[in-house]
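Quick entry, no commentary yet.
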Amino acid sequence: MSGGNAKAALGRAPLKLSETERAQMRKSSLFLILGLMAAVAVVIIVNLPRAPAYRINKLAGGCQNNLRIINSAKEEWALENRKTTNDPPPTLNDLRPYMGRGINGELPECLCGGTYTPGRLDESAKCSLTPDEHTYERKNAYEAKRQKQ
């Protein structure tokens, strides 16, 4: 393409910059890149402390879900075996058939490495780790019946 054709193709004359103008463009590009890097760094610095807390909350949520499953299995076990709150509490192996997947139901494991205790029928199941975060408080059928009386 010759110079005349370039003008016709672009609709304007090619841009000719002096050395000073080129240096100013390079400088403004450098400042733009540095500004973007600074903005990304600020976003990372602001969100970095939240990452461990997010992971802990996610693991505690998984533990709470496992406790909910154990509590549901405990209620089914009690209804099927005609157990009352005065009877001894079930073991996790007693609850295995009620965890889903038939007689060989899988027992849930705490994602943080704790162990579960089903507890009595009028209590919620518990995890051995940090009771404040790893609890699932709910009103089971026994508590609701007792409150109505």
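second:
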Amino acid sequence: MGVEPTTSAMRMPRSSQLSYIPNLFFARGILHQNELYSNTQPVLILSAMKLTFLKAVGTHIVSEQAEEPVALLRDIIINPDSGAILALGLFISKKIIPITDIREWTHEWVKIVDETAIIDREELIKLSSFNPKRTKIFGKEVYKEDGKFMGFVEDFIFDTEIGSLTQLYIVKKFLFISLEKRVVWFRDILRIEDDKIIIKNDTRGTKEHIKDFFDLRSKIKSPVGTSCPVQ
């Protein structure tokens, strides 16, 4: 697949937000499967790491122009076709922050230049082409392609280095008892629909994957000073 041409309709970072250090999201001139930019575009600097969704919820959104946090992270908005992170959803607001407007992302905060990075969903052309329900991952039912119910997405892992969803943590329950737990890689997902996710019939989760998932989640500190419920 070739690099998609950049158009003026796509929301481009302001010149004050750009750095020419080639790393992370825009390493080798791509934003996860050639999402937006050609290899001549400048790059944004992000702290490379893996995070789980539940550990990221409630993270402070901070501005270089303000002393206090300007928002709290509520959702990770995903391109359902490629798994790429497109934007962050915010608490107490229907607005978003495009991934290209993030200057720094750590366990403790997400940094933007100023509040002009917070926009309406419709302003991001790439995102407006998807039904909002398809771009959400948490809480969705998961089925194999033969129709077998596998459980619900109770968390997921994303990687800020490649800007993408990488794994789903799926739990099947009876009442409040967890019957089965599994970790599924993004490559095993066939499609993400409005209300469910379909995975390959031969998808298998191993105990090692479960252990690795919990090891990762235990190492990530929850955002300081926040107690935001997932909505």
